[in-house]
Design a protein that fits this description.
Elements: E1 3-9, H1 18-27, E2 29-41, E3 49-50, E4 65-66, H2 68-78, E5 81-90, H3 107-110, E6 111-112, E7 115-119, E8 127-134
Parallel strand pairs: 1-2
Antiparallel strand pairs: 2-8, 3-4, 5-8, 6-7
């Protein structure tokens, strides 16, 4: 109950219990405070949640990728209000790439070389959404 705004950027899909994590985020906010949540999502309706196998884009610690509709429902169930999806965008290889500061593997290495709409495992390629909600 300490912050006006809490940012969670690229964390939710790494959590084994995303609902508990949303409660933790909510508990950090003052009454009326704002959550800015950025996470990976998949296409679908309010019941769509994708759980990859051993890896997703070569990451071992990806647990759940909800649709924006499912994520909105999760936020509602946790007690957030005024929930808005403010951005949904595919992660591109131009954006997430090797540079002189980070010269190891990057997104292009984790996508299907013949079809960048899929990960190397055959799953939908990463799409990020930003949602804003109030306590």
């Amino acid at each position: 109950n300490a912050f006006d705004t809490v940012f969670s950027m690229g964390v939710l899909y790494h959590r084994r219990s995303p609902i508990d994590f949303l409660y933790q985020l909510k508990n950090q906010l003052k009454k009326g405070g704002e959550l800015v949540l950025e996470t990976l999502v998949v296409e679908g309706d309010a019941q769509t949640v994708f759980m990859p196998g051993d890896r997703y884009a070569q990451m071992r610690n990806v647990w759940y990728l909800p649709s924006t509709a499912a994520l909105t429902l999760w936020l509602q169930r946790v007690g957030f209000t005024n929930i808005r999806v403010v951005d949904v965008a595919a992660t591109t290889i131009e954006e997430q790439r090797a540079t002189e500061w980070m010269d190891t593997q990057s997104l292009v290495d984790f996508l299907d070389p013949d079809d960048h709409s899929k990960t190397i495992e055959g799953y939908p390629a990463p799409v990020r959404a930003v949602l804003i909600a109030n306590k």
